[in-house]
Amino acid sequence: MNSDLNYTHWKKDHETILKNLSDKNIYLLYSGGKDSSVTMDLLTRAGKEFGFDFQAHGATYPAHRYTEEEKMRIESYWNKRRVDIVWHDVGESDDYIKHSPNPCFGCQELRKKLMKNILADWIDDWGRLVIVVAFSLWDITSYAVEHMLNSISLQFEPGSDIEKSNRLKEIAHRFYPLIKMKEGYSVFRPLLKYNNDEIKKWIEREGIPILLIPCEFKDFRPKRILERYYERMGLSFDYSRVYDFAVKSLKIPDMSSYASIGKEEYFGDVF
Q1: Quick count: other Cβ atoms within 10 Å of Cβ 260?
Q2: Which CATH number fits domain 7-270: 3.40.190.10, 3.40.50.300, 3.40.50.620, 3.40.50.720?
């Protein structure tokens, strides 16, 4: 059975977390896409009710998506709701990834590097930090499928055990709605229990603007290919079943195992 994405149900499901955010320094990783936009809407509503503020930080990369017109259009909507977006330039043009075998890997690395630098420069008290990431149920389902396919294709390759282990380490923590880390900060994923069609309906119903310029590299991402398959087949998923499968079949580690990972390792190799 799918979870119903409405504010009342979402709030009830996350109430324990939301009640503890009033004294936190909350950073939402905002892309302008549907997932992060719905997350921003939910946090804006919850902030008024539970008494917390948050900052929205967006990396303007790939650059062709983030024209001044697009940023101004999106900012205009959120400013009316008293939400500011801090845009960050990664310092590279799209040529940096255009001729890569997989441009998405380069894009992800640039975004990781930027976030690591922002946190290093802006965060003094790591114990108060909460990073909000807008992964959805379709994201983690795709990670599970991707890991299975990689396990099959790499099982006879030299060094494949190391490669599979590193990738699993990278994706496993994304299956948990909230993890608490060694230095006291937390990573919160408010949309993990929701399917793509529910998120799209929210965007349409609430009239929330999202980036309209598609990424020219989107077809390089395995999860985008899988998402199109789910959509065409009319598939939806249940978080509990996906999580149980990940534990039993993929052998993802318990979330407590991440408590021993220092921030340098986490943001350098895992996040």
Answers
A1: 9
A2: 3.40.50.620
- pTM beyond cutoff 0.70: yes
Work out the pLDDT band at 183, boundaries 50, 70, 90.
very high
- For the chain, first and last CA: distance in Å? 30
**Taking the domains of the chain in order of start, what are their residue ranges?**
7-270
At which residue do the structure tokens 């062709």 appear? Answer: 64
DSSP string over 19-70: TT-TTSEEEEE--SSHHHHHHHHHHHHHHHHHT---EEEEE--SGGG--HHH
For residue range 59-106, what is the model confidence (pLDDT) as tens digits?
999 999 999 999 999 999 999 999 999 999 999 999 999 988 889 889
- The tokens of 131 are what? 């990073």
- For strands 129-132 and 178-180, give the pairing: unpaired
DSSP secondary structure string, 194-218?
Answer: --HHHHHHHHHHHT-----S--TTG
